[in-house]
Amino acid sequence: MQRIFLLLLLSIGSITTAQVKQEIFESFKLQERRDVQYYFPENLDDTKKYPLIIVLDAKYLFDQVVATSKFYSQFHGMPESIIVGIDQSKNDIRYEDCAFEKDSGLPTEKGKKFFEFIGMELIPYLDLNFSTAPFKMIVGYDITANFQNYWLFKDRSLFNAYVCISPTLAPEMENRVPSRLGSFDKQIFYQLIVEGEQNRDTPAIMAMDKGIKAIDKETLHYFFDQYPGADHISIAAYGIGRAFDNIFGMFKPISPKEYKTKILTSEEPVFQYLEDKYQDIADLFGFSKPVELNDIMAIYAASRKKEDFESLKPLSNLCKAEYPDSMLGFYFEGEYYEQLGEPKKALKTFEKAFQMEEIDFLTKEMALEKMDALKADFGF
Q1: Which of 251, 279, 313 is the last residue of a domain?
Q2: Within the chain, which residues score under 50 in pLDDT?
Q3: Total number of domains in the chain
Q4: Strand order in the sheet with 220-227
């Protein structure tokens, strides 16, 4: 835990001015000039797609979201992201931006304009000028956490993921949010983070939690985290890492737990798991992720353990494409022919592997041992 905390502090310290830019955004919808901060990953590449994270209450949350994103993208498999923080601290403008009618629970006229500013001005500007992925996330706290829920009221949610920190809920929101989340067919991630300290919003929040948990839908990914030691102020510093863990979980390399509980217990071909995992990533985030060496080795180990040798052939083809200079592809193909009972093809394939570069645990000596064993057994 101390090491993780230290790394997070280092991440915060390394947010350089070259990566964070501030801009005054002229909003036609608001008829105002708004302070906006942008974080761009180092070595921004126009050929890559970057998820977009919108951070409301930027004074409270922006630096923490950026630091967490940097930490997770460097150490935990999350994709690098473009992060945009909207400053709402001056003159407590957050209460004007996110105000709602007490009777209907819907945004006030200023709230509607702020809603349009984000959805019709800011995000289109970012999509036009930067290489953004279809995946979009929004983070809010207190009254701004409530405000982000209004995007659920649209027929198509603008955001794929919502991080809702201790929301000050508008009237009927505890019923409306579950109803709207249950209506979508697209993949939606919804993270609710609350403190242990009770306040006047607690009953409505818990009712909303109960309503969302009652939804039985594969496309909804709901996470609820409560921190007993936090109060309404300190909760803003809790749980963002956990939210990233949940929302970007599929991006992480295959873990030992995932290997034991999902791959080894599945009745599907082992390679199918890898194929589905990376296709899900492409479908959700809108871009293909290079296959992790860790994941290839996990599938190789599972193929051998389950004696699913048919999975070695597509795995070898994948390795030839992803790691073309390494031994991986031809070595796995050689094992495939070996198990298939075709020693001549296996020998020739191991000879090709011997000429390639070593990688991970695979060495030329291992390929040579395979070749010698085949020659001894079959008299080649």
Answers
A1: 251
A2: 1-17
A3: 2
A4: 20-27, 32-39, 82-86, 50-55, 132-141, 161-165, 188-195, 220-227
Do 181 and 280 lie in one domain? The reply is: no
**pTM of the predicted model as reported, rounded to 2 decimal places:** 0.86
Same domain? For 241 and 334 the reply is no
Which value, to the nearest 10 degrees, does the dihedral of the CA atoms of residues 118, 124, 127, 133 take? Answer: 60
Percent of the chain at pLDDT > 90 equals 77
Give me the pLDDT at residue 206, please: 97
pLDDT at 380 (0 to 100): 65
Nearest partner of 162 among 182, 146, 148, judged by Cα? 148
CA 88 to centroid of chain Cα atoms: 26
Q: What are phi and psi of 86, to 5 degrees?
A: -105, 115
Q: Cα(140)–Cα(159) distance, rounded to whole angstroms? A: 13
Separation between Cα atoms, residue 58 and residue 36, nearest integer Å? 8
Closest CA to 147 of 180, 127, 170, 131: 170
- Give the pairing of strands 132-141 and 188-195: unpaired
- From CA 223, how far away is CA 240, in angstroms rounded? 12
166: alpha, beta or left, given left = phi > 0 and alpha = psi -120 to 50? left
pLDDT tens figures, 237-290: 888 999 999 999 888 899 999 999 999 999 999 999 999 999 999 988 888 888
Q: Across the chain, which distance is largest between two alpha carbons, in Å? A: 88
Q: What's the chain's Rg over C-alpha atoms?
A: 25
pLDDT at 17: 44
CATH code of the domain covering residue 313: 1.25.40.10
Of 251, 275, 292, the domain-final residue? 251
Q: Which candidate, 185, 190, 219, 216, places its Cα nearest to that of 205?
A: 190
pLDDT tens sequence across 315-367: 999 999 999 999 999 999 999 999 999 999 999 999 999 999 999 888 999 99
Q: 380: which 2 tokens?
A: 């080649």
Closest CA to 67 of 133, 139, 134, 136: 139
Q: Do both 235 and 261 map to the same domain?
A: no
Q: What is the pLDDT of residue 9?
A: 41
